[in-house]
Request: fold
Amino acid sequence: MTLSVLTNILENEHILISSSTAPKLAEALLPIFEQDDIHMQLVSLNLFLKIIDLVVDKGKKPLKRIVRQSLVPLFFHCHDENERIAEASRELLICVARFLKKRKHKHLIKNEEMWKFVKCLLTEDRSRAVEHLRQALPYLQSPQEPLRAAAIRFIGFAGILMRGQQEEFQVLNEGPGAGGDARPRTLGGHLGAVSGPGPSADSRVSPAGKVLEALQERYRMGSLLGRGGFGSVFSGTRLADGAPVAIKRVPRNRIQHWGELPDGARAPLEIVLLDKVSTGFPGVIQLLEWFELSSCFLLVMERPERCQDLRDFIATRRFLPEEEARGLFRQVLEAVRHCSSCGVLHRDIKPANIIIDLDSGQLKLIDFGCGTFLQDTVYTQFAGTPSYSPPEWTQLKCYHGEAATIWSLGIVLYQMVCGKHPFKKGRDIIRGQLKFPRGLSQECRDVISWCLSMRSLDRPSVEDLFHDPWLQDVHLP
Reply:
């Protein structure tokens, strides 16, 4: 029976799988997780999930042994280079944890705290540690570098456990980093020269191992704050002074653009851009230091003690009073002007990429993952959020940096005072139709309409907005 036929049969929600059949089917599917054929892998993962869901009650106990064997393979495929395989593996791993009634496992996987999950897996039943280690060994020969690196770290943790040594490790280690070029960096432009973590007492420790040691010496990892197309962001604490930080993990295989730092080092463009804008200006998030591992980069950034992104800030209030929006919008303009003065174009200005310090009212522009260098000529490649793209991109597939930024600023201001996006559908952008609530001043309406002019040449410059009457005499934090 082919996988496709079996899939079609199991689509029938009234079918239940017998206690004798379920373990056999599940065991037959496990090797297919390792197929090179992506379609076969996805089908096998989907079928495994259906078996868990459709097995009869008395068949759950004999099925548990096979399901338990899937934990380690699924963990590794959460690191798969193919995002569809990685996501399907993660979803199945959550279902497996639920089936096995491992509530803590499920919580850690959902929060992407994968190396804490490994710690639980290896410590909850030490009699199975050798079995887990044996399952991990083949991934040392995987053609995928992320899987090989994950195997090295997994085996390292298992080895520590079997020697009876207890070591606390952080979810930062989720970025497998054994072997290869691994280095900690500070921003040489204003934080001084780079110094590595120092010589290891054990000369066998890899460069990546030393970097991870340095990370653990400097920071304590917290919970997942959010994730997007370019990486995941975690809360953290700097151990030296207890200062809160944000730690962004960017997988190497998701990095599309690279640049050069002032010291000549090659780095992801996001780091290069943050280096340029991290001059102490309060309206832009400051990059404190960064670490390079073999499969990812870790960016350590400042984080206000109590903060909220502008999207949630608006949502909890439905919309903002015009006077409050005026002050916040002025701060956004200050941040944009600072970036421009540094030769940086953000390209993804939206409420989700703006955070507010709830104690001081200070606003900060974050997430430069879509950014690029500012240029006078047109851009012919779009990066950012499509619903914030200007009409000239929709119609002509090109745009100027400042004009596109002004368009997105108009949308942000509209969202502040109206509580919703001005254009629900793509055709609404082309029509350029705006509806304003009663009570909104004409001056505010004029600024929004000016920013959202259909012709890019009709839009104001950043400096024009600074001189607009509506934005005068604004109190800033």
